[in-house]
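Hi L.,

You mentioned the student needs an example of a multi-chain input paired with its predicted structure. This one should do, with 334 residues in total across all chains.
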Amino acid sequence: MAGSQIIPTRMELGKQKKRLTTAKRGHKLLKDKRDELMRQFLDLVRLNKELREKVETGIRAANGNFVLAKAASSDQNLNTALLAPKQQITLEVSSRNVMSVEVPVFETRTRTESEGDIFSYGYAFTPSELDDAVDSLAQVLPEMLRLAEVEKACRLIAAEIEKTRRRVNALEYVIIPDAQAKIKFITMKLDENERSSQVRLMKIQDSMAAEARAKALEQEAAERPARA
Amino acid sequence: MYKIGVIGDYDSIYGFAALGLAVFPAADASEGASLLKRLTADGYTVIYMTEALAAALSEEVAAYDETALTAVIPIPGISGNTGSGMAMVRRCVERAVGSDIIFKND
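Structure written out for the whole complex:
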């Protein structure tokens, strides 16, 4: 701790004081950043939970429909029906800045405009349950994409909050107290030095005065018998 | 141009092919791991993965938590909802807040 390595000089004191002000300012800024990130995170994570619940129920329902479709038709038949999809989805990714965290924003493009293109088969040889299944899955898809975006943002922000919190704590409990202790140590050491030099001066002054007095007495004594 | 992929057991994911997502059936965890690696290298940004497989590959999935682009999102498979997708959200909250304040009533 303080005193083990630092040199108690005015220059070091100035350095430590500067370090303390920087640390205090950084601490305040990071704390504000953490609070704002936390606010945004809580909003996002609530949305994440909501979306996940919707998507999970949606997919469960769609899976149920697929089981029905499978029961109503043969495996090969279904596989052939879905073998060559008409539709294709691609992503455009841009990013949004949330308190210096780059959060992705996904935008989807479908190859064809028509909504009916999710049905990549003729209706003659497939069960109607398959239409229901594919349709129910298509209805969940927009929410699934939104979920991907929100969940990714949540994970990134959570990681950033953790990092920021560590920094805030390091500043609050290590860097700032350390600088304060060092400043206290140096000031005390400097005061101590000043006092000791003052005492030394006073001592010298005293001894010089005593010497002068002794000399004066001696002189007086020497002059007295001469007069007598 | 980025793409969306779905990894999992065939029965759980084949329906997504009709919607225009690329499906990649994986019979077991090791196949899933190599698929995940290949897809991320091939420009798949959003990868949906069945919860069962994501639970088996939790380490590999966690590695993408802090990459800016790739999002691995667990979805329920045909065998039902294991709750591991929600557990991941819960872990995320715990990581950020320090304790779970969103799901405590569930």
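You could point out the following to them. Chain A is about 75% helix and 10% strand. The beta strands of chain A are 89-98, 101-110.

Best wishes,
N.
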